[in-house]
Amino acid sequence: MTPVKRSTPRRGIYLLPNLFTTGALFAGFYAITSAMGGRFETAAIAIFVAMILDGLDGRVARLTNTQSEFGAQYDSLSDMVSFGAAPALVMYLWSFSSLGNLGLFAAFVHMAGGALRLARFNTQLTSADKRYFQGLPSPAAAAILAGFIWISLEHNYPVEIFKYIGIGLTISTGLLMVSNFRYSSFKEIDLRGKVPFFVTIAVMLAIAFIMAQPQTMLFLLFLGYAVSGPVVTLVMRKRRFHGRKS
Fold first, then answer.
1. Are 18 and 74 in contact (CB under 8 A)?
2. What's the CATH number where 72 sits?
3. Rg (CA), the chain
4. DSSP conformation letters of 3-17
5. Is the pTM of this model over 0.70?
């Protein structure tokens, strides 16, 4: 009898979602190199571009049914560069280098917070509540720092004064990423479902506001999201406490 040949699974990676991940990785790398060349506004915009591409790769993978363990790990490494190392280095090169060890410490807190945040996220993929993130997501943390730099450059704020605000923001984002505060993941929103007409108008107005003053609106948007974590967590704990008493 002729032995039956067993087909072996084909090895390889899905191209389309990993192209978006590679684009996000390049944007983070480009932000670092732009900051090294003194082009800090370009560096801040590159971090936002990395955010957009990072948001697309997962959605494309789900829509095309091309999720893979390789893609998940590659996405985490890309996030570490684009939202951990890049914002920390850009902030350091922009205003922290003159502060010596304090500036180095603040930048490292953000970068280390991003690394710990991503490691914890990867270990909780199967057990975490999909409606919430534990700790501030690293793209949102990076957006706060990038938005702060962009606003400061747009309005010519004096770096010597505003760098101390930047120190506070950088340390805060690093700590919020490793906190236990709960942040909405917005995954329960059905983008394919029908919505009332006024919701469409509200979305159009929001986009118009962001396009008119992108640096200010994006900074305030993500700063508000960062503040929402402690607020939501405290409200939920208060409700749970009153529920037990009753």
1. yes
2. 1.20.120.1760
3. 21
4. PPPPPPPPP---HHH
5. yes
